[in-house]
Amino acid sequence: MLKISAVSYLNTVPFIHGLKISELIHNIDLQLDYPSICADKLINGTVDLALVPVAVIPKLKNSYIISDYCIGADGAVDTVCLYSDVPVTEIESIGLDYQSLTSVALLKVLLKEYWQLKLELKKVDIGFEVNIKGKHAALVIGDRAFAMNTKHAYIYDLSAIWKELTGLTFVFAAWVSNKKLPQNFISNFNTALEKGLSDIDRALDLERDNYPNCTNPEDYLNNKISYNLDSKKKKGMELFLKKVNAL
Questions:
Q1: Would you list the DSSP string of 7-51?
Q2: 197 is in which domain, residue-wise?
Q3: Which pairing describes strands 154-157 and 136-141: parallel, antiparallel, or unpaired?
Q4: pLDDT digits (tens, 9 = 90+) for 19-47
Q5: R_g (Cα) of the chain, nearest Å
Q6: Which region holds residue 213: left if phi is over 0, alpha if psi is between -120 and 50, else beta?
Q7: Fewer Cβ close by (within 10 Å): the C or N end of the chain?
Q8: What is the pLDDT, as a whole number, of residue 209?
Q9: How many CB atoms lie within 10 A of CB 245?
């Protein structure tokens, strides 16, 4: 039985729905985690396939992007933001979301190339969001960001800034295996994901109550998240990994 780790955020609801209604669900062990745990499991080999932060791909001994779909954004995404009570030029320290890998790397790229700032970056634990005050800011990703978007004077959407900096779309996470998988499985897996994406309304109807902080999940999934891993996203991902390597 193939072991799969998928992100448990709202943006993966169509993927999970597609897998659950497919025949594949009977032959896989589907585990839901936050992004950095998905990455750890794939690196450690405790799963065979995972929806991982793209920043982890260079850390894998073997990596195979096996899907035509991803978690991406063409501009503002609303759920990967730097939150602050002061302008970025006045920030002294930033808490780095423990659930994140790609967004942390993206923040470092933007601090260097867009803002040209050197700030103190701090590892943080559960509950760190409440400590945003004064000149201490924080990077928050995922569903917790929905509740943050009205709480602070300054919100910097990292995907929007990446688009401004590079003109490219951004890929946060991709479906990556740590071994070669049978072509038949890959085909069926992509078909399941595609079916979930074509049935977003139904997927939301089943899961809506689990995401109370998002006031307009239809808009978020249809207009903020961009799922197709097309040539533009691959170009953006390649540039991002190049920039991360140069940090």
A1: E-SGGGHHHHHHHHTSGGGGGEEEEEE-HHHHHHHHHHTS-SEEE
A2: 2-72+171-229
A3: unpaired
A4: 999 999 999 999 999 999 999 999 999 99
A5: 18
A6: alpha
A7: N
A8: 87
A9: 9
**pTM, 2 dp:** 0.95
Residue environment code for 102-113, b if the CB has 16+ CB neighbours within 10 A, otherwise e: bbbbbbbbbbee
Identify the CATH number of the domain in which residue 113 sits.
Answer: 3.40.190.10
Q: In the sheet that 80-84 helps form, which strands lie side by side, from edge to edge? A: 120-123, 93-96, 136-141, 80-84, 154-157
Task: Give yes or no: residues 35 and 147 share one domain.
Answer: no
Asked if residue 66 and residue 18 are part of one domain, the reply reads yes
Q: How many domains does the chain have?
A: 2
Model confidence pLDDT, tens digit, residues 57-111? 999 999 999 999 999 999 999 999 999 999 999 999 999 999 999 999 999 999 9
Residue 27 domain-assigned (yes or no): yes
Under 8 Å between Cβ of 15 and 207: no
Q: Are residues 40 and 153 in the same domain?
A: no
